[in-house]
């Protein structure tokens, strides 16, 4: 039974290879994280079904296929796809909220509009994807040299449960714009928006097989990622799974981009504007119940303001109204699953039994579901488990510092390098820290911004390659040089 979303019509749950519907062989329950109750059965694709879906995607790619359409025709179809999502906003938002447990008001305001914005930005790219012309530098004679940018082929887009439609669109939009076809594998916890996206793509006129979905578990993902006709894997999720995907790519030398975990630091300097820094640093950790890959989960605060900042952050955490996804007054939902709730609770319990102190924070947890109260731990040493490992819940590990060099050393003392944050009023401090922090993105006096205008991704163990910006297109295009003696 679906609680709170009266009359919500689920997308078709069976899978298709191109236009052909596949018989459902095995299922997993789709569970509402706000209640813990199953409301639907998701198809688990077998290796043979993955094979049929990838073959259909490969047929749709070429001879003649998606890559052979004129660039203007691809642009038009992608804009029509964006129009279809826009027209479907109330329904696809409800599906996403039901699946993830996120408050519906946030999904309507943030997640779905972001997915549409990404699609529109990359929809404008096909007509602008040109190579460049030149000549040879060291060989005498007359040559005309130019480069072409050719789509790599079938893309496996494998996504996690924290921002299902957004992270899927970060891959789908540039891949389709580049002329690739895409097989999307959503997380087993959150298949609904992916299934609906494929229906909307079909309604918008995208040919069968250009965008397909394959639902299932890790084994389904592994079958997809290692399929010989998949030319490129675009993955977001845990570092361990990213490593498994990279290993599986070796026999075919597949192109792989990995957007992995993080343990992103925030530094609040003594001169920071605390009216801005406190709520930003708090929501930089607690937003989406802490299930954000680039959340600021390690906080270093100048000793002179440490107690004041921690009190402020605890107050912001306590003020979050936790509640079910269908309630428009909810500000924070539950964690995605019982497994995730137990994992987060385990980190906090081990931190406490190891002697770490939590700032007192009164939060009311709704009955049922997988809710977890925001937690602020103080004086956390750099070698504590909770300072080193990605928790993926609303848990902030904090420590005081005395000077900027110490704060930067603490910030960089992590194998991850996804994001970093600095709060200061001093321009020199801002530039110095931005250059010194080892992370793919540094935010100064702000948090949680992503935009198709700038590249996003991780240094160190946080990943390989970049999403977004014009840079992401390189991941879906092979440069080819043509050298012509004239
Ligand atoms: P995961 O990495 O196991 O799953 C992500 C996606 O990969 C899912 O679609 C899954 O079905 C698929 N998958 C799993 N094994 C695969 C394989 N061998 N080959 C191909 N695909 C495979 O993540 P999880 O188990 O859902 O979450 C575990 C932890 O990962 C979380 O606690 C959190 O720390 C982290 N996480 C990080 C992000 C992020 O954005 N960086 C997102 C979600 C989870």
Structure description:
Helices cover 36% and strands 21% of the residues. The protein is of the alpha/beta class. The N and C termini lie far apart (71 Å). It is built from 14 helices and 22 strands. Helix 12 (385-388) links the parallel strand 15 and strand 16 (395-401). Helix 2 packs antiparallel against helix 4. It has helices at 47-61, 71-87, 89-100, 104-123, 164-178, 192-203, 218-225, 239-248, 274-286, 306-319, 338-353, 385-388, 404-412, 427-436, and strands spanning 16-17, 20-21, 27-32, 37-43, 133-134, 143-151, 154-158, 181-185, 211-213, 230-236, 255-259, 264-268, 296-302, 357-358, 375-378, 395-401, 416-417, 419-423, 441-444, 459-460, 463-464, 477-485. The chain has a seven-stranded mixed sheet, with helices on both faces. Nicotinamide-adenine-dinucleotide (NAD) binds next to helix 7 and helix 8.
Q: How many E strands? A: 22
Secondary structural class: alpha/beta
- What is the radius of gyration? 23 Å
Give the termini separation.
71 Å
Unique ligands? nicotinamide-adenine-dinucleotide
Q: Provide the β-strand percentage band.
A: 15-25%
Q: Rough shape?
A: globular
Instruction: Count helical runs.
Output: 14
**Low-pLDDT segments, ≥5 res:** none
Mean pLDDT: 97
In helices, the fraction of residues equals 25-40%
Strand ordering within the main sheet: 14-15-16-13-12-18-19
Largest sheet: 7 strands, mixed
